[in-house]
Specification:
By secondary structure, this protein is an alpha/beta fold. The protein has three domains: 3-248, 3-Layer(aba) Sandwich (Rossmann fold); 339-444, Luciferase, domain 3 (Roll), CATH 2.30.38; 449-621, ANL, C-terminal domain (GMP Synthetase, Chain A, domain 3, 2-Layer Sandwich). Helix content is 33%, strand content 23%. The chain is built from 21 helices and 29 strands. Helix 1 runs antiparallel to helix 2 (37-53), helix 2 packs across helix 3 (69-81) and helix 10 (261-270) crosses helix 12 (296-306). 55% of the residues are buried. It comes from Planomonospora sphaerica. Residues 623-633 have a biased composition (Low complexity). This is AMP-binding protein.
């Protein structure tokens, strides 16, 4: 069976009774646009017939649509014609977004871009400016005179036929196109369907981007696979007014929703009590939380804030997945609620998971549904027993074919074999362990910071730094060392700070208290209170040094938005490190340990990092530290569950 056959069977079964509804927030009033399963199938057949006339079978098509029903119809139209859909975010004026879109066009050999009428003009102009208008055609699908659905002829589509390319979000490297087949798509949708209790009907609510794996697979395509209704809004509408999400759950009596941890955190922080008055969330049975580390503080805050209106603890369903496995690898079954346990911090640093009454809190990522999940020593390739931390290896029907036109990378990631020769496995690049059948994810192999033989996980440092003061936002922790230096890394934490929440005055008009210098660092510090930011940086530095027992630790405060993120919101530690070394971070203040200063000098070109940081702050030795046993206290409350994208960056 192909995914096309599944959609057509559901359309025949449910006709106009089941539907997709796009919800727009117009000054607090909800406006709805509806497309039934039967209507979706008819439009997909018309689009499929149009693409077939253009001989697009097995050729890539870039989809650059805003959130809404048109994207879904066009995506399915590509599948109906056996064209290879390539969903991607609309390139706005952000140079990085434009660069990403141009890179995908080149990598996927795109010759046809599909969009809507509202964006056709700007995209055509951009293609012309990029010198691509001679080779790439841009067409507005909602302005086409399409053939009738009866003119569509189903092409030969088998389980191994390529359905679409899911470009990874590039959290650790350049984005790569993951090749998802019809069999992969059917298998993973079935995994999700089983996790939510195999319902034959139901209502979902969401707002996730359709070009990310969680938004496409977990939100947009699951309803037509399972036979349920979906009400969804745009990501921008959610960010602008997060109460919309809760209003939709209440209004449409939704039973299922999916989102990354930051969305629940944003909702808990921004939705007011007045906005929740009269809402009822008791219909909700399953709130999948994945795509990034799940924080226990977020789980508890959501229940505390919205428990009185029906959001119960057992609604939570932490999960783990990645684009290379289509989406979901492990999930928490509906109604079970999260598994939260404490582990000895010092043992985790030795890659051992020892349950303890006090220590690091971790959130379990659930269990495999039908996939095989093993934990393997990445060096020896020996299987590890329960409670041993190693690389997570996966195999099963959801594992993708590989990376588009990247044979070497495909061989490294998708052809793992254990020391005994078992395989092939997908090597996720994530560290984790199994305990009592539950998967716990502890971090990425490449992100682990090694200090005096201890393995420090960056998300623990980042979470502890955020907790020092309400003015502190996202952080990126990483290690730096001279190329010819000792094995130990020096810990650097790049920490966003919000000026409006920082104590003290609004700042000095003459910029006094910030040190000299010019360029990006000098501009970034205009109107900042020098004493306040310096004190905050030293406070973070001292708290982390004492809590984690690290003698060489530096803190770089940056403006909001200074920490690199993927398009799906995951922290880009490698990119943030690169911006630090090239002197391009919007630095507000820096507290550098002397050893870190030397490492940055050795690593950065012509001392650019040193110059930018010296202009923004001071160079001093880190304060005296407590022993490593204090790590557990600072890291408590960090749930490392579901960095849903891993192997060299993912799509979710």
């Amino acid at each position: 069976m192909s995914f096309v056959q599944r959609v057509r069977a559901q359309a025949a079964r449910h006709g106009h009774e089941r539907s997709y509804t796009f919800v727009e927030d117009r000054a607090g009033e909800l406006s709805e646009s509806r497309l039934t399963f039967a209507g979706l199938d008819a439009r997909a057949r018309s689009l499929g017939a149009w693409l077939a006339r253009r001989r697009m079978e097995d050729r890539t098509v870039l989809l650059l649509h805003p959130a809404g029903l048109e994207f879904l119809a066009v995506f399915l139209g590509c599948l109906y014609s056996r064209a290879v859909a390539v969903p991607s975010p609309l390139p706005q004026t952000d140079p990085r977004a434009l660069e990403r879109a141009a890179g995908i066009i080149k990598d996927a050999d795109i010759r046809l871009v599909l969009t809507d009428a509202a964006h056709h003009g700007p995209l055509t102009a951009w293609l012309r400016e990029a010198g691509l208008d001679g080779t790439v055609e841009c067409v507005a699908t909602d302005a086409l005179g399409l053939p009738g659905p009866e003119e569509w002829t189903e092409p030969e589509i088998g389980p191994d036929t390529l359905a679409y390319l899911q470009y990874t979000s590039g959290s650790t490297s350049e984005p790569r196109g993951v090749m998802i087949t019809h069999a992969n798509l059917l298998h993973n949708e079935n995994e999700i369907w089983r996790a939510i209790g195999s319902p034959t009907e139901g209502v979902g609510v969401g707002w996730l981007p359709h070009y990310h794996d969680m938004g496409l697979i977990g939100m947009l395509l699951q309803p037509v696979y399972a036979g349920g209704d979906l009400y969804f809004a745009s990501p921008v509408a959610f960010v602008m007014r997060p109460a919309l999400w809760l209003e939709m759950i209440s209004r449409y009596r939704a039973e299922y929703t999916v989102a990354p941890n930051f969305a629940y955190e944003w909702c808990a922080a921004r939705v007011t009590d007045a906005q929740t008055a009269g809402l009822d969330l008791s219909s909700l049975k399953f709130a999948l939380n994945g795509a990034e580390p799940v924080r226990t503080s977020t789980l508890r805050t959501m229940v505390r804030r919205f428990g009185p209106i029906g959001f119960g603890e057992r609604v939570w369903a932490p999960a783990y997945g990645m684009a290379e496995a289509t989406l979901v690898i492990t999930a928490t079954p509906v109604g079970r609620g999260p598994t939260i346990r404490r582990f000895d911090a010092a043992a985790l640093e030795r890659h051992e998971a020892v349950p303890a009454g006090t220590g690091v809190e971790l959130v379990g990522c659930g269990r495999p549904v039908t996939m095989t999940v093993d934990v393997v020593d990445p060096e020896t390739r020996e299987r590890l027993g329960e409670g041993r931390v190693g690389e997570i290896w996966v195999r099963g029907g959801s594992v993708a074919r590989g990376y588009w036109q990247r044979d070497e990378a495909t061989g490294v990631a998708f052809a793992g074999r254990t020391a005994s020769g078992e395989g092939p496995f997908l090597r996720t690049g994530d560290l984790g362990f199994l305990l009592d059948g539950e998967l716990y994810v502890t971090g990425r192999i490449k992100d682990v910071i090694i200090v005096k033989g201890r393995n420090l996980y960056p998300q623990d440092l980042e979470e502890a730094a955020r907790g020092v003061h309400p003015a502190l936002g996202a952080a990126a922790a990483f290690g730096v060392e001279p190329e010819d230096g000792p094995a130990d890394e020096h810990v650097v934490v790049v920490q966003e700070v919000r000026r409006e929440r920082l104590g003290g005055s609004a700042g000095h008009a003459d910029g006094s208290g910030h040190g000299g210098g010019d360029g990006a660092a000098g501009d970034a510090r205009d109107a900042w209170d020098g004493d306040a930011v310096a004190g905050m940086a030293r406070r973070v530095q001292g708290e982390l040094a004492r809590a984690f027992g690290v003698g060489s630790l530096s803190v770089v405060l940056v403006e909001r938005g200074g920490v690199g993120r993927t398009t799906s919101g995951k922290i880009q530690r490698s990119r943030t490190r690169e911006l630090l070394l090239t002197g391009l971070l919007p630095v507000v203040h820096a507290e550098l340990a002397a050893a870190a200063r030397d490492a940055l000098d050795a690593l950065s070109a012509a001392g650019t990092a040193r110059d930018a940081l010296s202009a923004a702050g001071t160079v001093r030795d880190a304060p005296a530290t407590a022993g490593p046993a204090a790590a557990g206290a600072a890291a408590g409350g960090t749930g490392r569950a579901a960095p849903g994208g891993v192997q060299e960056g993912e799509g979710g």
